[in-house]
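Continuing the series of single-chain predictions for the mutant panel. This is the parent chain; the variants come on the following pages.
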Amino acid sequence: MLSGDEASAREHGTDSSFSLAGHMEQYVDETGQLTLTKALQPAIQSKFTHIAGHLNTGHIDHPVWLKATVRTEDGFPRHTILSIGPPSLERLRVYVQTGNDPSSPASYREYRLGADIPASQRTLLTPQFAVPLVLDNVRPTTILIRVEPGIAISLFATILTPEDLYGQTNMLLLLQGAYLGIILITALFSIFNFYRLNESPYLYFGLFVLCIFCFILSGEGILVLALPQQAHLVTEFIRRTAMALSFVFLALFGRSIQRARSHPFASRYLLFISILSGITALSAPFWLYKDLATASMIGALGMMMILIHISSILVMEREPGSKMYLAAFVIIQAGYVLQLLRHFGVVPLEWWSSNPMPFFFLLAIILISFALTERLRESRLAAEEMSIELRNNRDVLEKSLAVQENMGARKKRLIDMISHEYRTPIAIIRANIDIMMLNEASQSKEAASRFCKINRAIQRLVEIMDISLEESQHDDPRDTRNPQSMRIDEFLSQEYVAEITSRFNLSARMSESIGNHCIKADAAQLKTALFNLLDNAGKYSVPGSRILLECSVEQSWMVMRLRNRVEECFIREGDELFEQYRRGRNSTNTAGAGLGLWRVRRIVEHHHGRVAIERNTEEFIATLRIPVILTSE
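Parent structure:
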């Protein structure tokens, strides 16, 4: 029926369809200017060479002409259809002989087809390119096809009856509809899981599947049937962009599941492929796309090797779904290798190699979906275990808080009892000592010294009791404070300054910068902090030296500085003195429990202030800072 030589032409019998594979001749138009008139000249006709199978020249920059001669026998319908694919062919012209002279251009009818030709201008609207044929059992019919250059020139052609064409079209639409429905639901479900769980693998996988959806929708001719007037404007752009973006999101998906466990080279390579593929997607409308698309496809092979390596590591680490990741990446790699080999013309164009990627993608998508489902199940189990652990910890915490509250109540009762039972006899003893000292005021110095020792011992007992009470009251100083706004000059009133000056060997200096500035503080607590600082300064100052209190406003702080001279060994002490139960090196002969400065720091920090110790060779300086809140008018 088919041949370039009419004498050796095969005749079509009663079969309802026949493939042109192995029955076509080709001629490469290196000039790109060959027209039908020139192609029919004997000099050109003699240069047509027979090709085995379908047309699959790989990457070529020149148009290709194909020729086939068709003749039918009785018993086969004269009205048939020439079906040409794949639907991604950008531009082709089909010339069908309708006259008697095969060497005359006037004997041919031209059909303009291709992805960039409006579908409404086609003679038959089908996913594949279709041309009507009227065959004769006496006169052979010559068919010429001009295929424009593209990324890879591939073409298959089949002659079939209209009934077969319609049946194949309906079956194709049914299968493609089911295919697109499955992957669309998978994509939306994955993106929904991303918004629910906020885990990036679900997002990248969902976007990858959406790209496959767009690629199949545009590359298989389905979009032509849905939008016959507009499909030619966007089909090729969508197909190119979707394929490039699928590389982008697959690379990002691989980066998201590796969790930095593999070699850094893997992460950098995947990032490189995502950037290269992103640039390829942006170049889809321009001439640069052909070279970038080839580079991206080659780079995708390396990307799949990296993904297989990553999934192998996950398998060894027994990550949920890792075996399905590995199987999916191996399947995609096999599809890419097959497509690339066909792209370069190494693998012949057959039914199993014409468009293998949808099948491989479907298998991979199913496997990755199962892997992510397993990941989701493991996440739920981990969340349930964590919830159980949190409930157990909450129960333990509630019991601990109950025990602590009970201990706090018992401690308060003990302190109240001691305060009552302890202070009463101490007060009686002190009153009697005072009476004895008055009655025996004229006695010897030895008796007076004994009375002083007794008084110091009583004072020590009272001090221990005060420390215990104070520690109980200040375990949480926030429970007893009531901060209020007050002016600094009202806090440091003349009466209060006179009181502390008379009690301690103190000199006070109030800066004019105080003005009408205010602070928010609990006056009683803040005075306690200042008193503790003065008390410590009085205990450890060099005998006979005076304590200097300076008060000023610096920027937005009320600053109080206490300066006093101390022994050289004490100068080496610093902010560690504010630690609980911490006392200075020379404190062995002084009363105290290491709580005074600790309480100072707690009170000041609760007022959002700071307290620090500075020192030099002669002075020990304690600086207390409280924030100023406003200026009173």
